[in-house]
Design a protein that fits this description.
about 80 residues
């Protein structure tokens, strides 16, 4: 069975190299992160509203238009 040769240093070397690479990253500013976060929330809300409206329109079309189901009326009181 063949063995795998691992480079010297192991986990410590990996951690050091990963930290070096992370220090090279150009990180976004706080304002940019906030702006993009708000944008994602607004787009998500718009998509959710669209799906809600289309779902309700589809439900009304099926229940009242195709199936002819009556509208919900309150139960009679006795």
């Amino acid at each position: 069975m063949a063995t795998i040769d691992r480079p010297a240093g192991g986990l410590l070397r990996f951690s050091q190299e990963a930290w070096q690479e992370l220090s090279k990253v150009t990180w976004p500013t706080r304002a940019t992160v906030i702006r993009f976060t708000v944008l994602v929330i607004l787009i998500s809300a718009a998509i959710a509203a669209y799906i809600f409206l289309v779902d309700n329109a589809f439900t009304l079309t099926i229940t009242k238009g195709i199936l002819g189901a009556p509208t919900v009326t309150p139960a009679p009181t006795q």
